Structures are given as structure tokens and as C-alpha cells.
Amino acid sequence: MTRPRISARISAISESATLAVDAKAKAMKAAGRPVIGFGAGEPDFATPGYIVEAAVEAARNPRFHKYTPAGGLPELKQAIADKTLRDSGYQVGAAQVLVTNGGKQAVYQAFATLLDPGDEVVVIAPYWTTYPEAIKLAGGVQVDVVTDETTGYLASVEQLEAARTDRTKVLLFVSPSNPTGAVYSPEQVEAIGRWAVEHDLWVVTDEIYEHLTYGDATFASIATVVPELGDKVVVLNGVAKTYAMTGWRVGWLIGPKDVVKAATNLQSHATSNVSNVAQIAALAAVTGDLSAVAEMREAFDRRRRTMVRMLNEIPGVLCPEPLGAFYAYPSVKELLGKDFGGRRPQTSAELAELILEEAEVALVPGEAFGTPGYFRLSYALGDDDLIEGVGRIAKFLGESH
To answer: Per-residue pLDDT for 318 more than 80?
Structure first.
């Protein structure tokens, strides 16, 4: 009997759909095609200069040429605790912080630390592509609560309760949301938090987009709004989106001391410390003011309004207004099965492939986020590319009959 070359556990992992779309777009671009990519959630801004300078200085400091504590530089852990109090009113100590290699490692380690095989996690769909893989790798069972454009992609307590069983251990809560840009009001956050307390559930809350809200929408941390969650809440965050630092790979996990200690033990064997140079850059980011963030948010807000208006002008496309992050999530269900130059895409994945081939625009289909029939478009790219790209989509889709 021949044993499989790859373990069943790792074979079951899907490639990141967003990174795959981005890679394909970049490959086509390198081959000389004028592809515009709406795939990756990555600000088009450079990392602010004062952060870069801090990293340059750190690279020259022999202290940072050596191993440092696996869970993070003490000064960065304290600064993250201070920043969390400043930005969301949630008070924690440095011992409750674990610095990770980007937000993804924080996600993976949170679920690896909390879940035993068979434990259920309630996940609101559409969801970010990495959550299911992290839950699955930890032996957890994902239970989806599916939302759609009619509610602005917001889940109700009633929906969450319908998904709960006696195996439910964790609620994954994300606001502002990737991929939809949905933002829960403080009242909605409170209701959901109180439901979790009532049923003695853990809440893992991903707050990576905390500073990116628009109009009247405001960010509210479930940990602050519902202090009764006590030591059953884990906060995930990082510098990637707020400070245009996607490539620096610094995230963090905040939680009760026993969870952080256990997750730090895991990290001590998986990666040891995050790059010291990147940690010092993150220290400059979280201790600095938020003026660079305000400038970026202003640009994102302008692009958001332009994208939503243009998408809603396309017949068969319906795009609710996203109130946070930097994504639009339009429904294209009405376009499926229509004739596009002799081809009739039956799924949003097939339609996305057709748009990439024919209109040279890369976007991520809803299949990647658990809800077929939609596209995710990032508006974290330049204004000219955004207008040109959505214009190409409109032209191509307008040619259906």
C-alpha cells in the first residue's frame, strides 16, 4: 500500500483565493497585459516615512541582531496594550499581548489554542478566506450564518442563536468586515456580545480594520461594549491595514493570560520572535499619531463612493454601501447564465474568470468567501485605475444579451 505523499490535514487546505487572484493578475501584467487588479486587500500607499526610519535605525542596532522573546519585544507589547486602550477603550496588560507574524498567524494561533476536535465555531458569511482553513487545521467545525445584501451583510442575534448547538464554543466576530465592508452599530455589537455571555461562548474578534469606517459608522470593540465577556474574548489586530504595512508582517493577539501563554508556547516552536526590525517599525506605528491614517481614510472614502456609484449603474449589479474596511461586495446573481460573446457563466467564479480574460480586470468571486453570486473588489488602489477598471467591467457586462 502506497502512503499519500502529503498529509490529509495539509491536503485539505485551499490556496488563498485572494492571493491566487493577485498572483494571476501580476503574472498577466508581467506578460505585458494591462491588467487592473481589485483582488488583494492592500493599501496603495507607502508605509509612512517615520516608521521606515525607525526600522532603518533598528537594523543598525546590534541588540536586534539576536533572538528576542518569542512573544514579542516587551516595549512593543506594552505599546500595543496602551494603543488598545487609546483606540478602543479596552484595558489590558502587556502579559495579555502576543506579537505575531502578521494577522494571519494570530488567527491561526487563536483557534489552535481554543479548539479541540469537534468544537464548533459560528462564522458569519461572507467571511475572509483564511478563517475556515485556520478553524479546520485546529480540528474545529465551522457553522455558517449566511447574510446577504438585503441586510447589508449584518447577522442578527436570532440567526446566531439558530446556528448554536451544544458543541458551539466560539463566535468569530468581525466588524468592520472583510469582504463586505459591513459595520455593526454599537447597539448591535452589544446585543451580540450579550448573547455570547448568556450562552458562555468565547468571542474571537478581528479588529484589523478598526480605523477604517466612513460616514456615520463607528467602530465599537465587543470587548469594551460588553465587559461581561471577561476572560472569554480574544482580540486579533495588526499594523497591516491601518499603516499600509502589509509586507512588514506584524500582528497581535490579545486575550486572557492563560490563552496568551499557551499561544506563545506554540509560537516559540513555530516561528520564535517576529523580525525585530519589523517589531520596531510596528512600535513606531502604534505609538505615533493617526494623521497618516486619516489621510488614507479620506482617499479610501472618496474611492468607496466612486466605486459603489459606478457598480450600481451596471444593469444586473447590486452593491450595498460598505461602511468600513476597503471593499465593495456587489451581488452579480442576476448576470449568471447570461450570454457574454457566446459564453454563459453559471457561477460568479466563471464570470470572474471571463472578466479577467476579456476585460483584463482581476476580482475575487464570492465562492472564496462562502457566498457564491458576488464579487469582492478592493478600493485600496489608485483613483485612475479604479475608474478605468470598473469602467471596463461595466463595458464588458453591458455587452451581455
So the answer is: yes
Residue 355 has a pLDDT of 95
Distance from C-alpha of 128 to C-alpha of 32, rounded to nearest angstrom: 31
Tally the C-alpha atoms within 13 A of residue 381's C-alpha that lie toward its C-beta.
Answer: 24
C-alpha distances in Å from residue 91, one per residue of 5, 85, 232, 233, 278:
48, 5, 14, 13, 25
Torsion of CA 273, 276, 277, 278, to 10 degrees: 40
Q: Do residues 3 and 346 touch, judged by C-beta distance below 8 A? A: no
Residue 328 φ then ψ, to 5°: -110, 150
Instruction: Answer positive or negative: Cα dihedral of 267, 272, 273, 277.
Output: negative
Cell of 219: 467602530
Average pLDDT rounded to a whole number, residues 216-237: 97
Q: Is the pLDDT of residue 245 over 70?
A: yes
- Contact assessment for residue 126 and residue 181, using Cβ atoms and an 8 Å cutoff: no
Cβ proximity of 319 and 377 under 8 Å: no
| pLDDT over 80 at 401, yes or no | no
Alpha-helix runs per DSSP H in 143-256: 157-163, 186-198, 222-225
Query: Residues with Cβ < 8 Å from 190, sequence gap 6 or more?
Result: 220, 225, 226
Helix (H, G, I), strand (E, B) or coil at 39: coil
Matching residue, cell 490535514: 9
Asked whether residue 28 carries a pLDDT value surpassing 70, the answer given is yes
Residue 166 CA to residue 143 CA, distance in Å, equals 12
Cα–Cα nearest to 284, from 65, 48, 89, 44: 48
- Beta-bridge partners for 331: 318, 374
With beta carbons less than 8 A apart as the criterion, state whether 337 and 325 touch.
no
d(CA 128, CA 19): 12
- Evaluate whether 176 touches 323 at the Cβ level (below 8 Å): yes
- Alpha-carbon distance of 164 to 61, in angstroms, equals 52
Contact 170, 204 (CB under 8 A): yes
- Reported as a single tens digit per residue, the pLDDT across 57-71 is 999 999 999 999 999
Cα dist. 86→82, 89, 196, 230, 267 in Å?
Answer: 6, 6, 25, 19, 27
Instruction: Please tell me the distance from the alpha carbon of residue 335 to that of residue 267, in angstroms, as a whole number.
Output: 46
